[in-house]
Design brief:
This is Four helix bundle protein. InterPro entries: 23S_rRNA-intervening_sequence, 23S_rRNA_IVS_sf. With 50 residues, the protein is mainly α. The protein has one domain (2-45). Helix 1 packs antiparallel against helix 2 (24-48). It has helices at residues 2-18, 24-48. It is elongated and about 45 Å long. The longest helix has 25 residues, at 24-48.
Length: 50
């Protein structure tokens, strides 16, 4: 469920850029942070299922 929310946030960020609400620099920085969060959550989920 939480990973789905992360991907939803990613979609909202891309839309905000497309609509001119944020700069490319801010988009790229935020997406990189989001990717690291997704990676951490994926590893956590893997550990829980072992």
């Amino acid at each position: 469920m939480a990973l789905g929310s992360c991907y939803e946030i990613e979609t909202q960020l891309l839309l905000s850029y497309d609509l001119g609400f944020t700069s490319k620099k801010d988009l790229d920085e935020t997406i990189e942070i989001l990717k690291s969060i997704i990676k951490m959550m994926s590893k956590f989920n893997t550990r829980l299922s072992q």
